[in-house]
Design a protein that fits this description.
The chain has one domain: Transcription Regulator spoIIAA. The longest helix is centred in the C-terminal third of the chain and has 22 residues. With 172 residues, it is an alpha/beta fold. The mean pLDDT is 89. The radius of gyration is 16 Å and the shape is globular. The chain is 47% helix and 19% strand. The chain has a 5-stranded mixed β-sheet with strand order 1-2-3-4-5.
């Protein structure tokens, strides 16, 4: 299965990350690493352009929600810091159903960015099976921590991933 490609536009006080294609478990470690590195560099306002994102699975959504919770642990100002731009109806419904919609400001229409920005494509970390499994487990744990109703949805997935990760860590 093909996964999403990421491109980044960096402004003085914000970052725009464009997600193109299928935002799934395979692209989640790269997305998580990118967000972590940008946060460490001091960026606090993120625009996530979803205009060309055709699908978002629970792992990718969990990484996104976990980032929203981390950026604003109290949730009070999250909408000011992470903007989801041109999310499809399906992605918006998933956010709502999983209890994550309140973490983001959702906007639609043409993206208004300064002209002097240059897009770059971050290098993939080429995640191992273990890294993908760990990211997927953490994403589903974040979804369950965020909304108690998600426990019933994801507890079996999280248990499977935890066992798989344990086996992977034991392997030589």
């Amino acid at each position: 299965m093909s996964s999403a490609s990421l491109s980044v536009l960096v402004g003085k006080s914000f970052v725009c990350v464009k997600i193109t294609g299928r935002a799934n478990f395979a692209s989640s470690p790269d997305f998580k690493t990118l967000l972590s590195e940008l946060t460490q560099k001091g960026f606090g306002h993120f625009i996530i352009d979803l205009s060309e994102c055709v699908l978002m699975d629970s792992t990718f959504l969990g990484v996104l929600a976990g980032f929203g919770m981390k950026l604003n642990p109290n949730g009070a100002n999250a909408a000011r810091n992470i903007e989801l731009h041109n999310a499809t109806t399906r992605v918006s419904e998933l956010l709502e159903n999983l209890g994550a919609a309140q973490l983001f400001k959702q906007t639609n229409g043409p993206l208004q960015l300064p002209d002097n920005l240059k897009a770059s494509t971050p290098e993939s970390i080429n995640p191992s099976h273990e890294q993908i499994t760990r990211t997927s487990l953490e994403a589903h744990q974040a979804l369950m921590a965020m909304n108690p109703e998600n426990v019933a949805r994801f507890k079996d997935v999280a248990q499977f991933l935890a066992e798989d990760l344990k086996n992977l860590e034991k392997s030589p």
